[in-house]
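Example record used in the benchmark description.
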Amino acid sequence: MNISEQLTKSQQYGVISILIKIMEADGIIDPHEINFINEVLKVFHISEQEMELIDSFDIPKSVSELKVLGRNTKESIVRLFVGMAECDGYADPRELDIIYHLGI
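Model output (structure tokens):
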């Protein structure tokens, strides 16, 4: 996941914010999803203090941070989002709907 080197901190916050929204979309937070997001937080070197900043990122703000990225980086991020949706063994339509409607 060398994608972290291609993103600014603000873009990383946007990615985490969307991952959280995907994780919460079906109303069930599975342990696999917790492990997935914790791994991304580790790769991005995001501290607990920074998580408070991420709370201020809604989907439009997150998308605006990610829209400026190149196609390959966007594709990597979308794969990351799909990975979150699938990591519990079932890609819920509500999770996939969030990814589909991002438009990045």
